[in-house]
Write a sequence for this structure.
């Protein structure tokens, strides 16, 4: 049993290969974490309600149960040496309840903060880092008061449970107030000033025990609030890259991070960096690291939670483009594989290709982003995406 340290939020002594990593959640992020863990010789278990989920297909065992099933979490804890999670909507109380049975190096503070936009924005601002202007709101009176301060346009977001734009209402004028929930169904929410960003970006930070390393800043292109494409590197100068890396390390230190944390940014035309949100885990926009960096975000997550030392990851290619394969892109991309030996094809092994469901991704290493993006677009596989960047 690894020793838990209060001071380091539960960091473990170096876990030896052969130890078992339990992953709460069995989606694609867990699958790629498991693949990294497997080549390092760890055993992997996952807890997920869907039998033969993406992670289970590459893991040693699966416990088929809901994420908040406390008996199942206890079983996973008892069969594991270290516990982690691949998505943030995990029941933090249920994890706290097994902290005496298994190491949870990420702790649950990180989870609680990133599950709630009020706690998250407060944490970010308390560390001297900029967000959009924001205010907590619980009813129409508070919303109107916040709009007086922040002004239109603004975005109203539920404090908890929102993802990929769900639970968000853009308010451009008082006419849009009709779309807002009635007072008796008003969730705890935040009002955020609308940021007129030049582009969206993200950065990953990994580590443990106070030593943190960062990956290059990347540019992200969304369509319908779902990530479509990531381009590494982001079109920013060295000073801005350094600023992004510094804020990422500052946040990691604040959380006493063990593992990988993703930070989503808005980059403004005047060069200002604004943090949009945090993900306490590897991130879709970091898939490119698998081929484009010597250590990828999953390697460093596993090393971080297992108490291994981390080296600063090195970029192996001048640039890379990662494109998501959603349900509607599965058929055309599969048909195109034969013509694209340069594609690094990832398929998550999901049974059903629903519209907008993340089914896989493709990464292309390049020294000419424009040509590569044009080539991907020319395949017609992503014809439904309106903003292809
Ligand atoms: P979120 O769930 O907070 O990541 O928001 C989803 C997407 O909505 C972001 O990736 C942005 O494209 C957009 N968005 C969210 N908040 C703002 C904001 N304050 N200003 C402008 N766009 C926003």
């Amino acid at each position: 049993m690894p020793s838990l340290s209060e001071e380091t939020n539960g960091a473990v002594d170096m876990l030896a290969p052969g130890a078992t990593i339990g992953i709460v959640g069995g989606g694609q992020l867990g699958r790629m974490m498991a693949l990294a863990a497997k080549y390092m010789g760890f055993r992997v278990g996952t807890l997920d309600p869907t039998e033969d989920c993406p992670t289970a297909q590459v893991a040693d065992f699966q416990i088929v149960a809901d994420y908040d099933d406390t008996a199942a979490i206890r079983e996973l804890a008892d069969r594991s040496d270290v516990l982690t999670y691949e998505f943030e909507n995990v029941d933090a109380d249920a994890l706290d309840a097994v902290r005496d049975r298994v190491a949870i190096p990420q702790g649950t503070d990180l989870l609680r903060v990133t599950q709630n936009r009020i706690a998250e924005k407060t944490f970010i601002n308390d560390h001297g880092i900029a967000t959009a202007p924001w205010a907590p709101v619980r009813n129409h009176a508070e919303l109107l008061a916040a709009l007086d301060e922040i002004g239109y346009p603004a975005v109203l977001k539920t404090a908890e449970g929102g993802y990929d734009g769900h639970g968000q209402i853009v308010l451009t004028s008082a006419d849009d107030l009709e779309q807002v929930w009635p007072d008796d169904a008003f969730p705890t929410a935040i009002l955020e000033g609308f940021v007129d960003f030049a582009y969206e970006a993200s950065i990953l930070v990994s580590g443990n025990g106070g030593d943190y390393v960062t990956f290059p800043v990347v540019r992200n292109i969304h369509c319908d609030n779902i990530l479509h494409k990531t381009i590494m590197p982001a079109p920013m100068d060295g000073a801005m890259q350094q600023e992004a890396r510094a804020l990422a390390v500052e946040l990691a230190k604040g959380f006493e991070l063990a593992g990988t944390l993703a930070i989503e940014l808005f980059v403004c035309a005047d060069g200002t960096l604004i943090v949009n949100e945090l993900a306490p885990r590897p991130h879709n926009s970091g898939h490119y690291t698998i081929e484009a960096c010597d250590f990828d975000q999953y390697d460093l997550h596993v090393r971080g939670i297992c108490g291994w030392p981390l080296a600063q990851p090195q970029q192996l290619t001048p640039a890379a483009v990662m494109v998501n394969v959603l349900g509607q892109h599965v058929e055309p991309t599969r048909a195109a594989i034969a013509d694209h030996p340069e594609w690094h094809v990832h398929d998550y092994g999901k049974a059903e290709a629903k519209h907008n469901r993340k089914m896989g991704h493709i990464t292309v290493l390049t020294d000419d982003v424009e040509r590569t993006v044009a080539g991907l677009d020319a395949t017609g596989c992503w014809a439904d995406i309106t903003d292809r960047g």
Summary: The longest helix spans residues 238-255. The chain has a mean pLDDT of 94. The first strand starts at residue 20 and ends at 24. Residues 197-379 form a domain with the D-amino Acid Aminotransferase; Chain A, domain 1 fold (CATH 3.30.470.20).
